[in-house]
Specification:
The chain has 176 residues and is of the alpha/beta class. The chain has helices at residues 3-24, 67-78, 80-85, 98-108, 121-125, 160-174; strands at residues 37-40, 45-47, 55-60, 88-94, 113-116, 138-142, 148-153. β1 (37-40) and β2 (45-47) form a beta hairpin. The model is unreliable at 20-24 (pLDDT under 50).
Length: 176
């Protein structure tokens, strides 16, 4: 084998291993969602157990104040009344700190909780960390019993909130 081929081969193996490990660690649909204890943009502590009895759209995003993350957050913001009417809450999570979340929420008028995960522990428990050190753009829809009902790997931030909201309403009808 040529030296270039060997290097490419081992780079491919390393990349595949990292991607496989991240996917394998993600909690699966039908299983209890991993709990967490994180601070919001105002420094208040939250756990997943605090939201038992409600639908939770737990969305992970890479970074405050970036174009795609702003688009996604503002879409959730624009649907806040529909989420509340459906008995659902929106929780955004990134590895940014509290101060960054506060500025992001204030700048864009975000009326929902942003959770700071600077240790990356929660993002790792949900299998959404990527090799850059940021969370991947993924959402977990968690039912009122704390079970993962759906998982979304988000490729397009615009309109994602509508998809999640539609699924909440559909699942509520199915569970009646």
């Amino acid at each position: 084998m040529s030296q270039i081929f060997k290097v490419r081969y081992w780079l491919f193996v390393a990349l595949f291993t990292m991607l496989s490990a991240a996917w394998a660690d993600a909690p699966s649909i039908g299983r209890a969602a991993p709990d967490f204890k994180l601070q919001d943009q105002d420094g208040k502590w939250h756990t997943l157990a605090d939201y038992r009895g409600k639908w939770v759209a737990l969305y992970f995003y890479p970074k405050d104040q970036t174009p795609g993350c702003t688009t996604q957050a503002c879409d959730f913001r624009d649907n806040i009344f529909a989420y509340r009417e459906a008995g659902a809450v929106i929780l955004g999570v990134s590895v940014d700190d509290i101060k960054s979340h506060k500025a992001f929420a204030e700048k864009h008028g975000l009326p929902f909780t942003l959770l700071a995960d600077p240790t990356k522990e929660t993002a790792q428990r949900y299998g959404v960390m990527n090799f850059t050190g940021f969370a991947k753009r993924e959402t977990f829809l968690i039912d009122p019993k704390g079970v993962i009902a759906k998982r979304y790997i988000v490729s397009e931030p615009k309109g994602h909130s509508d998809v999640v909201l539609k699924d909440i309403k559909q699942l509520q009808v199915q569970k009646k």
